[in-house]
What we know:
This protein is of the alpha+beta class. Helices cover 51% and strands 17% of the residues. It has four domains: 6-191, 2-Layer Sandwich (Beta-Lactamase), CATH 3.30.450; 216-304, Beta-Lactamase; 324-480, Alpha-Beta Plaits, CATH 3.30.70.270; 487-571.
Amino acid sequence: MVNKPQEERHLSSARAEAVFNVANAVNSTLELDELFELTLSETIRAIPDADGGALFLFDPASRLLTCRAYVNFDEKVEQIRLLPGESFTGDCYKKRKPILLSNRNEITGYPRSMRPENRQLLNHSMAMHPSNNSYRAMSVPLITAKEECIGVVTLNGFAEQGTFTVADVELLETIAGLAATALERAKLYEDIKIKNHTFKTMIDYQQSQLVNMNSGKGLDIMLEQLFEVVGKPLSLLTVYGEAYNTSSIPVDLRPVNEYMIRDGRQLLGKLLIYSNSSNDLRQTDDYFIQQSLLFFALEINRQAAVRQVEVRYKTELMDKLMKGILTEDFLAKAASLGLDTAGAFLPVAVRTGNSKPARPIDQLMKQNEIAVFLEMEIGRVFPGSLVVLHDQIYLLLLAVNPKANDKEIQRRLSAIAEETERFSNEYGETANARFGVGMLVQRIEELPDSLQSAIDTLKLMEESNCRERIADSSRFLLERLISGSSGKEVGQFINTFLGPIYRYDRDKGTELVKTLQAYCRNLQRPGHAAKELHIHTNTLQYRIKQISRLLDADLADPEILLNLQLACRLAGDNNITIDNQ
């Protein structure tokens, strides 16, 4: 630094005019980019032998000096990133003192050289000049009124003739002081502008989310709006089994941020944010997310309230139907809930799963998810139908064409049953889906009996461990015929015809009862019975002869065979208590 006594320092009228012009220029704007350009251009105009230059500011985030303005350099200079102490520009920043290099040898021989990548960029940026180098250079620090060094101004002379003097350095210091003050003021103004813009954006966002919620646009629209602000893929899951996603989520991304959506202590859902890093959320992003969580909670509760009212109406309607209370406005109420009352009705009773989850909340979530799934599938295949969860059974009132083909209805139901079982199995348990189908009816007065028939069929499917996913009311006519008999009478009937075989199996460890059941199911196809039992046909025939000897009966006798079939059907796969006699 050039240290002259204060009394020896004076500015010529020309230099004073230059300082005045620079001061007017830098004070004429508060826009940072414009201020950078004005500072540099007016400085070069004030110093005759300066042909070009660059203004570097220190970036606290990267801890590097970055080029913010330049004159007579190629745009490559903008890519230079200097460490404090690197080259004479970086050294000026680090030491907070001016540096004057009067000739080319001092520049090229400066002890603190540039890193190779920066040297290459600098050479590219000076390629427009014949020497591809400068003949003189000087740098002064930009020091604010708070004694904070915020950057460096470097001037270069590309013409061989000319020189930088101590007076030029002093003039540049004076200009740099003015520029630093102006830059500090402009930076404060810029920060205020950014904060005001951010605040306005936040207010606009809140109002927009509120409008979306009040207009009932739904969680998917509200989620997309948050996506537009934070710029990262999002997913939203609710405890009611609903899932919402923004535009396609890349397969290589995983959720790195998870926010719980709560109403007080009650968990309503969660928001997942997908990204390559868990640390790239801005402070403003977190604000938008926190605000959105509040709106999401309100919307989830609003939808839940609407859903609860609809569920209550559906439940009341189904209760009246099951009790046979068919008032005059029954069809009108059913139609208002979405049931197509113009055609025929096919009641179906559905249950999934073999066991309940350990926690009630898990059971509730599972029931809701399956109910939503059934509504989607039934609505797609049988539009105008109703789905109601009633006493752990999903009751479906399918709206079908009266002229619909029975096989086509069966095929569609089979596809839905298969998909329902697959969906239910996503809970990690072996969950059977059973569909008990009532009778197709065309009059509302016939619905109660048909609905009860569907429920009874479902229960008989469960009691008999029916392997099929779908069974209609005709599947268990025999069981219904004897349903009026006492359990003791049924047990006596089974014991009479199967007791000797049960006792033999118990004593000898054989499987003759299982063999007889398979044989009765496949009377005309002994090969199928053997395949079901995983035995050879000859082994099957041998066991049938054993059974014939134990029962002292001819299995070819139609009456005896009928009684054995009936006993096997009644016994099913349940454990039967057999008398020891």
